[in-house]
Amino acid sequence: MAKKPRSQRRKKGQGLDDDDSSADSGMVTPSDKKIQELLPEDHTIADSASTIISAFEEDLGSEHGGEGATGADDDLLLAHGNRTADQAEAAAAARQARLQEVLVSMDEFASEKRSAKRESRLKRLFKVLSQYATGSAGFEAVASQQDNLRTAFLYSLRQGTPSEQYAACRCMEVMSVILGANQEAWAESVAKHFQRTVEGTNKATAVRMAALRAWAMTVFICDASDGYGTEQLMDFCEVAAQENFRNETTPLALRATALDAWALLATTVEDVYLAGQDDVQIGRGLAILSWLSKCLDIKSVEIRAAAGECLSLIHEARLSLGINTDEGENATEKRYSQGSWEGTTWEVTIDEVKQRIAELAVESGRSLNKKARKQQRATFRDFANTIVEDEAPEEVVSFRNGAHLTLGTWREIIQLNFVRHCLQGGFQMQLSTNATLQAIFGADKRMFHADNNGGLSQVEKRLLLSKGSEAAKEAHMELTRRRDKRENIKNHFLTVDGEGI
């Protein structure tokens, strides 16, 4: 294979997208476009099969059986029914040991020259942070390595390939959840790097999206100041969601992510500040209401859904203004008093929004594929229930022990979706042990330790409670018999002797 000319060779230690001249000027060169094409917009932390099995994972997992055995200990503990206290302690100790092992391996992260191995380490770190860094012990272990981890993440943002940069952003996002509230120092130390990454038009779109989500999560969880960081980031998201950003056409996926991040931060402000108006100022949601309504006409399903979510949140806040006053009135009268859109400057806009959302909830055109149409209809039916019918949403989170957590506002649902996207497979583990998340969603930690399945073992749960159990099959057969009987009764006049009823 012929060597590249010297002018086209990459300098030693320089990343694929580490071009200071193009980054400073904001111009996208042809080589930058090739780099961006290396990472699709729907890239996830589990992608890139080349780094799933690596020498690093073989070395690190040699003592515990490798990556495939990460859950082996827990499976053995669950094999003979419910956990006892000793088994739970043993499983927790095993998770802490794995967490410490991976954290120690990050000390020499920058000395690894191969980007594939660095990416593999970050993926391994993401898994242990989201699933093993639980409780006070997990917090102390991560907090003690905070400086080393931040150094490793920033090194990957500067020198790594797009997939490595994406993995670094995802690790910083989940680390913010583990550190919890009142971590202003962490939020301030990473904010400027997130901003630089999102503004870097030479970086892959997936990396910019991951950086913006991580930035929003960091401000949402860790920044407990007077809200100045939230205000700044909401302003930034409004600019990044426009059609043009930093003299370049903004990718549709990045615009949708900016709207999602804006919605998350909007859940932290009061209803009056979001959807109210007085002689001094106008609510942030009202200021962009007309622009959000135009986003519903964009062909991108992601932007439509993100804009619909923002509009549902603003509408809910507007209705809450009427419900929180005049306690002597009933709910219907309250909704059409102070919290009503009638007679306001935005009445026509809201009417257009209601009509458009009702159309999207039943749209069946051929401009989208079957899967996208189904997803859009399901999403906008929930939006229509709130904006058109003034009904509260409902989301039920089920846990492995049979417990349920019911959320009844768009504030909580938006926060749930963002946190769930961040933690992925570690969501339930973190929610059951993380005090910050429990405070956000109003969950009682005792519900995660109670057995709501009557003390059944794992085998008994599969035999009695699963969809493939004998009881479920019998219920299905009974429903089928009843359905056939109803059809036979309807068609009885077609038969002479009435057989088959």
What can you tell me about this protein's structure?
It is a single chain. This protein is mostly helical. Helix content is 60%, strand content 2%. It contains 25 helices and four strands. It has helices at residues 20-25, 30-37, 55-60, 72-78, 85-105, 115-131, 135-144, 146-159, 162-179, 184-199, 205-222, 228-240, 252-266, 271-275, 284-287, 289-295, 301-323, 331-335, 347-360, 370-387, 410-423, 427-433, 435-441, 458-464, 470-490, and strands spanning 244-245, 248-249, 395-398, 404-407. The strands form two sheets. The chain has a two-stranded antiparallel ribbon. A two-stranded antiparallel sheet has the order 3-4. A hairpin with a 5-residue loop joins strand 3 (395-398) and strand 4 (404-407). Helix 10 (184-199) runs antiparallel to helix 11 and helix 16 (289-295) runs antiparallel to helix 17 (301-323). The longest helix is centred in the middle third of the chain and has 23 residues, at 301-323. The termini are far apart. The relative contact order is 0.07.
Strand order of the largest sheet: 1-2
Query: What sort of overall outline do the alpha carbons produce when their principal axes are compared?
Result: globular
Measured as a percent range, the helix fraction is 55-70%
Low-confidence spans: 15-29, 48-83, 331-338
Distance between the termini: 79 Å
Structural class: mainly alpha
Number of β-strand runs: 4
In what range is the share of β-strand residues? under 5%
Rg from alpha-carbon coordinates: 26 Å
Query: What's the rounded overall pLDDT mean?
Result: 80
- What sequence of helices (H) and strands (E) makes up the elements? HHHHHHHHHHHHEEHHHHHHHHEEHHHHH
Largest sheet: 2 strands, antiparallel
The number of distinct helices, counting runs of at least 4 residues, comes to 25
